[in-house]
Design goal:
The complex is a heterodimer of chains A (615) and B (1071). Chain A has 20 helices and twelve strands. Chain A is mainly alpha-helical and 615 residues long. Chain A has a two-stranded antiparallel ribbon. Chain A has a two-stranded antiparallel ribbon with strand order 2-6. In chain A, a hairpin with a 2-residue loop joins β11 and β12. In chain B, the strands form twelve sheets. Chain B has a 22-stranded antiparallel β-barrel. Chain B is globular. Classes of the chains: A mainly alpha (615), B mainly beta (1071). At the A-B interface, α1, α2, α4, α5 and α13 of A face β24, β26, β27, β28 and β32 of B.
């Protein structure tokens, strides 16, 4: 009995002690730390602030946290190009059908809404990252004054403020009525009614101009000149022409920017020409950077390559329209045929309808055509001759391919990972380039009545365009090279990707086996404001074709309804599916605010975001 | 813990007998003479036992205890009395000088049917006041699925089970609806160790001794911390004292899909062309000629190769130019008169299952060792699952201390790289539907062919997908078990400690092929490898006290428990393999392009600490009361809110023991039960108390220096923290009634409940203006479930030799979101299918309600609302302008259906005559809707996919104005806006199982003492109006930032791997 009791006691005590020891050991048992993440304190330093700023730049194009499709593209090819008459969605009828809706102005049909939301999410992610940078900068500067030298702190603040202005401007161009978020905002359901978006953007840009250094800290960053040029852009968009003149003339006169010597140096994967004098702001695409899916490349553009049979393999989106191709036709003076010939876009001659192929020399064209549009029997950069079999479905979307966003062969510009490595390249995406800025200045000069200044700018642009035209290239493969040489024997001994044009006082010209190139300058003086306006706008279309600007230009000019409805009525004869398009109406002047965001903006039953008129 | 409890019973019994032996030894010195001995025999829990045989060892002299457990017998003083009753451990007592010998009998080691484990203790079934469902283990073994969880299907009212037909795939179990936006998986207590696992593949179903489902809080709240979704308690088999028993069960079967796409998709190329032709002509577009040539005289081309979409591909074909280059530029394939893509990929699969167990035990030990091997082929090509496992369960008695262990070691492997449900357009099912009949399986040189050439759909050959994934192996190794010790401290007090562990490691090796045969070529090959390791341990300590005074019975339990889980995951990828040989698929610089190597790892740590107590009282088996309190602390929650208290109360009243019913001839048992309790949920990722920052190379890193080939690090806030995170609470009320009638031949049980979830853990989506950081998880929503579960059973005889039984169980619940985040009334999502969101969570509606426009027939051209600019055309689906603004927009969307059934039920039938037995199980679900997302493909022909056979004949035309489908129109994106047109009734009734068995008489095979052979069929037929393959959908795979959100996307058919029709033969033998 005693033994039993002793055993019992001993074991009982052991258990009690075990329980007690667990409990004691558990004093900190419930304090576990999150694994594999950083917290706010570990980044409360210069590394953190600079890192948040870099992430703010990164939002210029789609990233792995963006929605999976192409509404987020830096170039706005869906929003500014496909909807403008410059380009079709391309590919075939069935692929990326939400863009079919967007192209045909059916913006309220179910699937378009999500695409529009991608753009919304992309720009406000940029705003959010900019504001996070500014908040952390304030915190670090306050808590560790010596951590970041003042000059750098100013640049960081200036860069983040500039980027916020850029993203808000993108939102403004899309939707007009948008909320404006500052780093102090904590309520993310701000209203979009009665917001002075332009005022806020300009105020941010002014602040940035005051903070930024004249020379950017890195190629990809903003300088005070970037912000100044951008300010002029915003002023033109806002119709503040007088103010724009002041701003942009200063940049023109004393800024660091210039036009590239050759048009093919503007959009390129050639490191010798990237980030040249014409770049004001560009998304810095990179490849082979260790990212396993190629996200840091030209992600937003990666569908926009020729399809089967080409080096790229896929996917045939963002195809130039016949209307755009025809617009490159020039008259005997090398000026746009559209200025003088009301039938410039007629279906006769027949090649204007569908087959504007190389070798048809009867119609002279602006040399920029073949740096902008891939067309059959014409060298496609240096990949060989563009070929109809590269087109995914010519019966649906015509015979042309986009060209500006494509890398050249031989410059190590493409990727080695991902779904389609040949379509992810390091061609920087221009968001704002000097030619664009000059043409905005020309616009402001016209509106201010200083027509000769506008003519000077337009001629400057045309003079550059007259420097070179598409050359033979050395084709990428032996097969492609032999096809090239069979078609054009002279190419056997000539592998330049560009040819110099014959220069003369008013007309630059060149005959190649695949085209007659001509480009002339406008003889002076300009005296008719309306004619000058037309010339500037035409030049803008030619120079910036396929760059995602035109739709916003048309809206800014108040010309969208006439231009687009004319486009639809003529282009329907070529692309049957356009007959489904809704007529462009007043409501199309602003994209609808994504319905999901309106819903998320609800406080109780009140929608803080108010839908744009007509949607 | 409950396991320990059973172990404790064993050990206490063993301990007591050893103790008694000591007493006997000490007392055996007296003189022999005749004495009269009397006493009382009771059970370990204090109930007086009637019918215990008391026999003098070595004689036939005996007596039997009366209703109060009393006996009296005259014996020689040196006699030994043996006390026996079926279901109890026999014990002996030396009489010695005593004239009073009171004895307590322990339950036999084997779990008796009426004893169930309900949380750290056992209870008699009749004493349970909560809602507890017991699974008929014998009936459940008739299913052949790899996972034990699948065998819950249709067995317990209020429990639903969803899984795909892919062997070894995930199983989603829901108990009484859905109570949270987050993870609603029940807690599993396996041999006393808590865990959550939606596969449970490591557990050999043949090892299961018992399975209970605790459905309401009064039963489950003893497991407070994680019990809000219900608790499944599984106890594995163990040895019984006595002779060694060897069981060998072997079965083999053959499975085929319950239905295939070929039963309703077009399999003739020219028939398909007629659809294409009509779709283009109706849209006013030129009909493509590149495949079939002249639309008015179409022909299947001899060859197809890539072209521009204008010329029929045989025009200029030179077969000698064929080359399978990585870019596929010159691939040539023969045109097919009609490829049956379903048959190309799906067929029959064999299964084999073998179990061997050896068990036995002595007075102070028991053991069971079992071995299992399972091999199941999927019905899809190259899809396979196999498992091998060993289990060792032992228990020993040393004095009054008991020790033992239960350990299972297993490995399982899945082949074929299918995701959990095998669903979605990127999987072989999705690919299957997307291939047109004109595309052949192979090109002219025997390589895989695909949609090369325009108009043939973008997507990959499904057999190629399967072929490329045949070496994709997912391997899981697991050691799961516990060691335990118990002490019988006497006076009804016992102490137990148990250390449970769950250690697993897994790996995956996957291959991404190049697809030169595709329209959208992928030229890069890649491999992915990952490894994960997790460890979870639980240490629990309990004290149990049992006291019976007169007719008052009291049981008290006190306990403490600590749990810690850690996990780590590592993954590596590499692209551009130098050779795709399976033996070279390693991440090494020499084997792939080293610049494409990428690795990462992540992990988590979480802990739980708990204290609990429970008191049960019953008076004369007539009035019952139980009170439970549990306090849990969780590391996942905010420091000031991490402790939660989870009380519960249960009460029962056995009316049949009252005088007014005592002599009822109708009812032998009538019990009313009531329970109320609170349970908790903290199933969110750990570490969400504070904001998290991070960066991803593809998201925040950037080439700011313009180098073209390098990026600089960038960071962003990746998740917003919430220091105020606290427990989600579920308050449930349950009222139940149990009846036994017709002399025990009939039984009825029903439970009525309401479950209210408060402080619902949830990460409401923020507007995009807040940025892309994961929103904070907050405790703000409220959800409610009301429901009823019932079961009804009868058994009887037909003549002398025939026994029959039938049981019917059913349940109904209604789920309702009561509050979301205090700001919004609804949120859409969680994700889009091809840019459209099919679901919404809205206050007043159930979770995951279907959302879209209201379809209203077709536009006929005379519609009073007129035509809109936005795509409405004659023959297209007409939608209701619900907000009356004259336009059909996203603002006209409304709730268009619910995936939740209004009723689910099962019927079990059994018949036994002589050596023959026959059983059948039916399952039915009624009133649930399915969002048939496959209509994207087989109705709307998105991406030029294959379509349903009746599309050509039953689409809108001017003469067929009320057809099944809208007008064929290649440009119609208007009709396919998500709407009620996509919603179908998902009700079905299915014969889940039919089994015929024959017990071989012992003499038939001399060396087998007992054997049973059987043949069975699973899913033999289904009655349903659903037009897709299989209305029994697996849960979708959906993860949000706050964890698993499967329940927000229920009932969406994204092309799931269909259920299997399996015919099996088997033999069960005992040696």
């Amino acid at each position: 009995m005693n033994t039993r009791k002793r055993n019992q006691l001993m074991i009982g005590m052991a258990v009690v002690m075990a329980v007690a020891s667990i409990t004691y050991a558990c004093k900190d048992f419930l304090n576990t730390t999150s694994q594999g993440t950083l917290d706010e304190t570990s980044l409360a330093n210069r590394t953190g602030v600079e890192g948040l700023l870099i992430a703010t730049y990164r939002s210029l194009d789609c990233s792995s946290s963006s929605a999976g499709s192409w509404g987020c593209a830096a170039s706005n090819w869906v929003w500014g190009s496909v909807t403008s008459g410059d380009a079709y969605k391309g590919s075939n009828l069935g692929d990326q059908q939400p863009i079919n809706d967007i192209e045909t102005y059916l913006w309220s049909v179910g699937e378009a809404d999500d695409y529009i939301n991608q753009k919304w999410a992309q720009v406000f992610e940029g705003v959010s990252r900019a504001n996070a940078t500014l908040r952390l900068l304030d915190k670090v500067v306050a808590e560790k004054p010596s951590e970041i030298p003042t000059a750098d702190a100013n640049s960081i603040r200036g860069e983040a403020t500039f980027l916020r202005a850029h993203y808000e401007f993108e939102a403004y161009r899309m939707w007009g009525n948008v909320p404006y978020y500052h780093e102090t905002d904590t309520d993310f359901r701000l209203s979009n009614v009665g917001v002075d978006v332009i005022g806020n953007i300009l105020s941010d840009l002014d602040a940035a101009i005051g903070l930024l250094p004249a020379t950017a800290r890195d190629k990809g960053r903003a300088s005070s000149w970037t912000a100044k040029a951008y300010k002029g852009r915003v002023q033109v968009y806002a119709g503040q022409y007088a103010a724009a003149l002041t701003t942009l003339r200063e940049v023109q006169a004393t800024g660091p920017y210039a036009l590239e010597t050759s048009f093919d140096h503007v959009w390129t994967a050639n490191p010798a020409y990237e980030n040249g004098p014409e770049t004001i702001l560009a998304f810095q695409a990179s490849v082979k950077d260790g990212e396993p899916a190629g996200w840091n490349s030209n992600w937003g553009e990666r569908l926009n390559f020729p399809h089967e049979g080409s080096h790229f393999g896929c996917c045939g989106f963002h195809q130039p329209s016949q209307n755009l191709v025809n617009f490159f036709a020039v008259d005997a003076n090398g000026l746009p045929l559209a200025l003088t010939d009301p039938n410039w876009n007629a279906n006769t001659p027949a090649y204007r309808d569908t087959n504007f192929v190389g070798g048809i020399t009867a119609q002279a064209v602006d040399p920029r055509l073949d740096f902008t549009v891939g067309r059959d029997r014409t060298p496609y950069k240096n990949w060989g001759l563009h070929n109809r079999t590269w087109i995914r479905d010519a019966s649906y979307s015509g015979p042309y391919s986009p060209k500006k966003n494509v890398q050249e062969d031989g410059v190590d510009g493409e990727n080695n990972v991902g779904w389609q490595a040949t379509q992810t390249n390091d061609v920087n995406i221009h968001i704002f380039r000097y030619a664009d800025m000059l043409l905005l200045l020309a616009e402001a000069e016209v509106e201010a009545g200083v027509l000769e200044n506008a003519r000077t700018i337009v001629n400057q642009i045309r003079a550059r365009a007259g420097q070179t035209a598409q050359g033979c290239g050395h084709a990428a493969s032996a097969v492609a090279e032999s096809l090239l040489v069979v078609a054009y024997p002279s190419c056997a001994v000539d592998d330049r990707t560009w040819y110099p044009m014959d220069q003369s006082a008013t007309l630059d010209s060149l005959n190649t086996p695949w085209a007659t190139y001509k480009i002339g300058q406008y003889p002076g003086p300009w005296t008719d404001q309306a004619a000058a306006r037309t010339a500037v706008r035409y030049e803008r279309r030619l120079e910036l074709a396929m760059e995602g600007q035109r739709f916003f230009d048309l809206r800014r000019w108040g010309a969208a309804d006439t231009t687009i409805n004319n486009y639809l009525s003529s282009e329907t004869t070529r692309r049957g599916y356009l007959s489904l398009a809704a007529a462009y109406a007043a409501r199309h002047n602003l994209y609808p605010i994504p319905s999901v965001q309106i819903q998320l903006s609800k406080v109780g039953t009140e929608e803080r975001l108010v839908q744009n008129p007509g949607w | 813990m409950e396991r320990m409890n059973r172990g404790k019973g064993v050990f206490r019994a063993l301990g007591m007998s050893v103790l008694l032996a000591l007493i006997v030894h000490g007392a055996a010195v007296g003189q022999a003479g005749q004495v009269t001995v009397a006493g009382t025999v009771s059970s370990a829990t204090g109930q007086h036992l009637q019918g215990v045989t008391v026999v003098i060892r070595g004689t036939t002299t005996s007596t039997v205890t009366d209703a109060d457990g009393k006996y009296s017998i005259t014996v020689p003083s040196d006699a030994v009395l043996i006390f026996r009753r079926i279901g109890y451990r026999e014990i002996g007592q030396v009489v010695g000088a005593r004239t009073t010998i009171d004895v307590a009998l322990e339950s036999a080691i084997a779990v008796l049917p009426e004893v169930i484990v309900t949380g750290y203790t056992t209870q008699r079934r009749a004493d349970v006041t909560g809602a507890v469902g017991s699974v008929d283990v014998a009936s459940a073994t008739r299913q052949t699925g790899a996972s034990t969880l699948q065998r819950l299907d249709g067995r317990v009212p209020g429990v639903t089970v969803d899984n795909s037909g892919s062997p070894g795939s995930r199983t989603t179990v829901r108990i009484r609806g859905v109570s949270s936006f987050q993870n609603n998986d029940p807690l599993i207590i396996l041999d006393g160790t808590p865990m959550q696992d939606t596969y449970l593949n490591f557990l050999n179903p043949n090892d299961i001794g018992s399975m209970q489902v605790l459905k309401d809080a009064s039963a489950a709240s003893i497991y407070g911390s994680r019990a809000s979704n219900g608790v499944i308690i599984i106890e594995t088999k163990r040895g019984r004292p006595g002779r060694r028993t060897v069981n060998l069960d072997v079965r083999t079967g053959i499975a085929s899909p319950v239905k295939g796409y070929d039963s309703f998709l077009i399999t003739n190329s020219l028939d398909y062309f007629q659809v294409v032709k009509a779709a283009y002509q109706n849209a006013g577009l030129a009909v493509p000629t590149n495949i079939y040539g002249d639309p008015n005289n179409p022909s299947v081309p001899a060859y197809i190769y890539p072209n521009d979409g204008v010329h029929q591909t045989t025009d200029t074909l030179d077969v000698s130019t064929y080359a399978l280059t990585t870019d596929g530029k010159r691939l040539i394939m023969p045109g097919s008169a009609g490829t049956n893509w379903w048959k190309a990929v799906f067929g029959t699969g064999q299964m084999r299952d073998a179990n061997l167990s050896v068990s036995g035990g002595g007075e102070d030990n028991s053991y069971l060792v079992s071995f299992n091997f399972l091999d199941q082929e999927g019905t899809a090509a190259f899809n396979r699952y196999n498992r091998g496992g060993i289990r060792v369960n032992t228990a020993f008695n040393v004095n009054r201390v008991s020790v033992g262990e239960n350990i299972a070691v297993s490995r399982d492997r899945s082949y074929g790289g299918l995701d959990d449900a095998g669903i979605g357009e990127n999987n072989i099912i999705g690919k299957n539907i997307m291939q047109q009949p004109v595309v052949p399986v192979y090109d002219i040189n025997g390589y895989f062919a695909s949609g090369k050439a325009n108009g043939l759909s973008n997507l990959t050959n499904p057999l190629k997908i399967a072929d490329a994934a045949q070496h994709d192996i997912n391997t899981n190794d697991r050691i799961f078990g516990n060691v335990f010790g118990g002490l019988d401290a006497g006076r009804g007090i016992s102490l137990k400690t148990r250390f449970g562990f769950n250690v697993g490691q897994g790996s995956f090796h996957g291959f991404g092929p190049a697809t030169p045969e595709n329209s959208e070529v992928t030229s890069v090959t890649s491999i992915t490898e990952n490894y994960n390791l997790f460890t979870e341990w639980t240490w629990s300590n309990t004290l149990n006290y049992v006291k019976t005074v007169d007719r008052h019975n009291v049981t008290v339990l006190l306990g403490q428990e600590a749990t810690k889980g850690t996990n780590r995951f590592e993954q590596g990828t590499c692209s551009n393999l130098l050779t795709t040989d399976v033996n070279s698929r390693y991440i090494q610089d020499a084997l792939c392009d080293p610049s494409t190597k990428n690795v990462f790892s992540n992990g988590g740590v979480s802990t739980l600490l708990s204290f609990f107590g429970k008191a049960d009282y019953n008076f004369a088996d007539r009035y019952y009361l139980s009170v439970t309190v549990r306090r849990d602390g969780s590391s996942r929650l905010g420091p000031d809110h991490r402790w939660g208290t989870f009380p519960a109360i249960g009460a029962g009243w056995r009316l049949s023991h009252e005088s007014f019913l005592q002599n009822s001839r109708m009812f032998s048992n009538v019990m009313l039960r009531f329970g109320y309790g609170v349970t908790g949920n903290q199933q969110i990722p750990s570490g969400r108390i504070v904001s998290q920052l991070g960066g991803d190379r593809g998201d925040t890193f950037y080439d700011i220096g313009g180098t073209n080939t390098s990026v600089r690090p960038g960071y962003k806030i990746t998740a917003i923290g919430n220091a105020d995170l606290k427990w989600e609470e579920n308050r449930s009320v349950n009222v139940g009634l149990d009846l036994e009638f017709l002399e025990g031949r009939g039984s009825f049980s029903a439970d009525l409940y309401q479950r209210n979830t408060n402080n619902l853990l949830f990460d409401p989506r923020l507007p995009a203006t807040a940025g892309s950081a994961n929103p904070p998880i907050v405790n703000i929503g409220k959800m409610r479930n009301n429901g009823i579960d019932f079961s009804l059973g009868f058994r009887g005889t037909l003549g002398e030799a025939t026994l029959w039984n039938v049981s019917f169980n059913g349940s109904h619940y209604k789920n309702k979101i009561v509050e979301i985040d205090g700001v919004s009334q609804s949120f859409i999502g969680p994700f889009a299918l091809r840019e459209q969101n099919p679901t919404i969570n809205q206050v007043g509606s159930p979770i995951g309600a279907f959302y879209g426009l209201q379809a209203d027939g077709y536009y006929q051209g005379d519609d009073t609302v007129g035509f809109y600019d936005d795509g409405a055309r004659v023959g297209r689906i007409k939608f209701k302008d619900l907000n009356g603004d004259g336009n059909i927009t996203a603002a006209d969307r409304t709730i268009i259906g619910s995936p939740h059934p209004s009723f689910t039920g099962g019927v079990d039938l059994g018949l036994r005559r002589g050596n023959w037995d026959l059983s059948a199980t039916f399952f039915g679900t009624f009133g649930n809707k399915i969002f048939n997302a496959q209509k994207y493909w087989y109705v709307f022909r998105y991406f030029d996919t294959n379509v349903r056979k009746d599309l050509l004949t039953d689409s809108w035309t001017p003469t067929n104005t009320n057809p099944k489908y809208p007008r064929l129109d290649a440009t119609d994106v208007f009709s396919r806006q998500f709407s009620s047109y996509w919603i179908e009734d998902g009700s079905y009734v299915r014969l889940r199982n039919l089994q015929l068995g024959y017990n071989l008489p012992p003499a038939v095979i001399r060396w087998i003492p007992a054997a049973r052979v059987y043949v069975q069929a699973e899913n033999l037929f289904t009655i349903t109006g659903y037009t897709g393959i299989d209305p029994a959908l697996p849960a979708g795979s959906a993860f949000g930032a706050a964890g698993d959100i499967r329940d927000q996307v229920r009932g969406i058919d994204q092309g799931a791997y269909p259920s299997n029709r399996t015919i099996t033969i088997g033999i069960t033998t005992t040696f």
